[in-house]
C-alpha cells in the first residue's frame, strides 16, 4: 500500500495501529471501532437509478445486516437516500449500529440533498427527523462488529499524481493481488484542503440518462472544505458480480457532505484513514440488466 501511495503522494505513512476511539470527534460514530467479522455488501446497483429509476428498489439496513449473517453489525458506506421516506432523492451516508437481540439500533446516518432555494448543499442528520433504517436503489457497505482492534492507518499528504486517494489504494491492491479480489472499507478524514463532490438532484430524471455525459449534466457538483469524514468501500477487481469497484460518501460538522470524487487542492491536501480488509463479499439484489455508466 505504501509503495503505491508514494507514486501519488509526497508524504505517505502506512502502519498497523490500534483503532482510535471512533465515538470521538470528528467521527462521532455510535461504536468505538471497525473490527470484527468484516464484510462488504453491495446492494442493488446503478441500473436501478439509471437510465430511469426503479421505485420498487427500497431496502432496510437492519434486514441487510441479517442477510449478511451479522445482526447487530456496524455499517458504514455510500448509497442513495430513502426517497420512500424523504419524498425526494438524496445522497445517503450510512453510519448505523443495526439491531440485535440484545440492543436496539442506533442511526448516526446523514443525508445530503440539494437546497431547492439556492442550489446549495444541505446536510442533515437522519435520526433528527426520521426513525426508520431505510435506503434505496443502491449502496456499497462495509460492515463489522464495531469492535476496537488493530487497523491499517494510512497518512497521505500533498498529492503529486492524478489518482484520488481511494483509487490509488484500490489500484495498488489490484496490482499486488492480480486476479484475487481484495475488498476494504473503513473511514478517512480529509484534514486539510478542498474536494470535488456531487449530490443528486431532489427530482429523479424524467428523461432517460444513457451516458456519463447525461449523468454529469444531471448531477450537482460542489467544492467542499475540510474537515470531511469519508466512508469508503472499495474492491481491487470484480469477480463477476457487476460490482461498483469504489464508492465513497462524506459528511462534516459544518453542513457539507455528499459523494467524494477527488481533492482540488493537491498542494495542501492531507488524508488520515483507518481501514480493514473484508473477510466476505455479499452481493444482494444484483440487477439482471446492467450497463457501465454512472459509476464515477
Automatic annotation (TrEMBL):
Entry's localization field: Nucleus
Domain of life: Eukaryota
Alphabetized SUPFAM superfamilies for the sequence: AF0104/ALDC/Ptd012-like
DUF1907 domain mapped to chain residues: 1-284
Main subcellular localisation: nucleus
Assigned GO CC terms: nucleus
GO MF annotation terms: hydrolase activity, acting on ester bonds; zinc ion binding
Keyword Repeat: no
Keywords carried by this UniProt record: Hydrolase, Metal-binding, Nucleus, Zinc
Subunit structure: Monomer.
Protein name: DUF1907 domain-containing protein
Amino acid at each position: 500500500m505504501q509503495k503505491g501511495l508514494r507514486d501519488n503522494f509526497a508524504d505517505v505513512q502506512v502502519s498497523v495501529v490500534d483503532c482510535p476511539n471512533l465515538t470521538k470527534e470528528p467521527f462521532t460514530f455510535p461504536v468505538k471501532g471497525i473490527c470484527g467479522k468484516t464484510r462488504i455488501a453491495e446492494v442493488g446497483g446503478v441500473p436501478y437509478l439509471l437510465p430511469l429509476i426503479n421505485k420498487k428498489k427500497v431496502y432496510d439496513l437492519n434486514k441487510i445486516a441479517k442477510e449478511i449473517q451479522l445482526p447487530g453489525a456496524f455499517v458504514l458506506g455510500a448509497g442513495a437516500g430513502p426517497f420512500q421516506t424523504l419524498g425526494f432523492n438524496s445522497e445517503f451516508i450510512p453510519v448505523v449500529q443495526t439491531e440485535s437481540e440484545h440492543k436496539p439500533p442506533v442511526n448516526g446516518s446523514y443525508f445530503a440533498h440539494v437546497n431547492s432555494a439556492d442550489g446549495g448543499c444541505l446536510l442533515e442528520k437522519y435520526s433528527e427527523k426520521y426513525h426508520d433504517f431505510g435506503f434505496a436503489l443502491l449502496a456499497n457497505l462495509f460492515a463489522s462488529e464495531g469492535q476496537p482492534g488493530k487497523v491499517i492507518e494510512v497518512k497521505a499528504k500533498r498529492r503529486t499524481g492524478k489518482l484520488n486517494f481511494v483509487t490509488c489504494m484500490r489500484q495498488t491492491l489490484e496490482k499486488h493481488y492480480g486476479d484475487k479480489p481484495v475488498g476494504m472499507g473503513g473511514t478517512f478524514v480529509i484534514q486539510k484542503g478542498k474536494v470535488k463532490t456531487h449530490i443528486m438532484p431532489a427530482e429523479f430524471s424524467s428523461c432517460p440518462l444513457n451516458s456519463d455525459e447525461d449523468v454529469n449534466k444531471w448531477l450537482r457538483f460542489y467544492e467542499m472544505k475540510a474537515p470531511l469524514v469519508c466512508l469508503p468501500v472499495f474492491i481491487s477487481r470484480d469477480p463477476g458480480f457487476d460490482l461498483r469497484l469504489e464508492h465513497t460518501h462524506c459528511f462534516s460538522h459544518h453542513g457539507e457532505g455528499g459523494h467524494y470524487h477527488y481533492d482540488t487542492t493537491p498542494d495542501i491536501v492531507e488524508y488520515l484513514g483507518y481501514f480493514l480488509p473484508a473477510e466476505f463479499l455479499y452481493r444482494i439484489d444484483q440487477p439482471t440488466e446492467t450497463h457501465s455508466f454512472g459509476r464515477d
